[in-house]
Structures are given as C-alpha cells and as structure tokens.
Amino acid sequence: MKNSASETDEIICQCYQVSEATIRSCIASKKLKTIEEVTEACEAGGGCHSCHILIDLFIDEHLRKSTPMENLVHAHADKVKKRGILGRFFKKFKPDAPVTK
Ligand code: FES
User: Fold this and answer.
1) Cα 59 to ligand 1 centroid, rounded to whole Å
2) What is the mean pLDDT of the chain?
3) pTM value?
4) Percent of the chain with pLDDT over 90
C-alpha cells in the first residue's frame, strides 16, 4: 500500500521545520531556480545549510536536469568547505602534511 502524502512528507530543513512538500510546492509554483530563492520563499535553507543538497536536488528534479547525484554532492561539499561550519575543520586538514608522533 502506498503511503499518503502526509505520511511521506518529511521535514527537510530542520532549522526552519520546512517539509519536502512545502519546498517542492514553492519551487513549482514560483518557478524557483536557486537555493536563495527557495530560502526567500519558505525559509528552507536559511540556517545551517545542511539541507542545501536536498533543495538543490528538488530544484534539479523540477527542472528535469537529471544532474548526477555525485555532481550535486561535490558541489555541496565545495560550498560547505568554503562557507559552512565544516570549513573551519577542512582548513586544518592538510593531506600532504607530515604525520607527527
Ligand atoms: S537544515 Fe535547512 S538550513 Fe539548517
């Protein structure tokens, strides 16, 4: 048996408690093409940025671009490294640095 929309609609943006249905509805009805536009429309993505990869996926699916998930993950990782909280830790990580004992 298929679940009803309310049973499968999950909170995607934990910071602002915005569900998948709300985000997808905003993208479709307002023809949104960027995370910033989605944030302005329904607040999703306006906090920690953890949900950005899923918002990107929803935009991509709406636009029927079929970007490989790997590309979305890499783009998201690059953004996180540059401006997210993890960037603080990535800056410390230097793969070629000698191991100290
Ligand atoms: S989970 Fe969406 S901004 Fe934090």
Assistant:
1) 16
2) 82
3) 0.72
4) 50
CATH number of the domain that residue 14 is part of? 1.10.10.1100
Domain coverage including residue 56:
5-66
69 lines ligand 1 (CB under 6 A): no
Mutate to test the pocket of ligand 1, among 10, 22, 49, 55 (most ligand atoms within 8 A of CB): 49
Q: Classify residue 39: in a domain, yes or no.
A: yes
The pair of structure tokens assigned to 4 is 């009803």
Kindly list the distances between the CA atom of residue 3 and the CA atoms of 6, 11, 23, 54, 76, in Å, as whole numbers in the listed order.
Answer: 8, 16, 19, 21, 30
Number of domains in the chain: 1
Is residue 50 a contact partner of residue 56, using CB atoms and an 8 Å limit?
Answer: no
Does ligand 1 lie within 6 Å of residue 84's CB atom?
no
**What is the position in ligand 1's atom list of the atom closest to the CA of 49?**
3
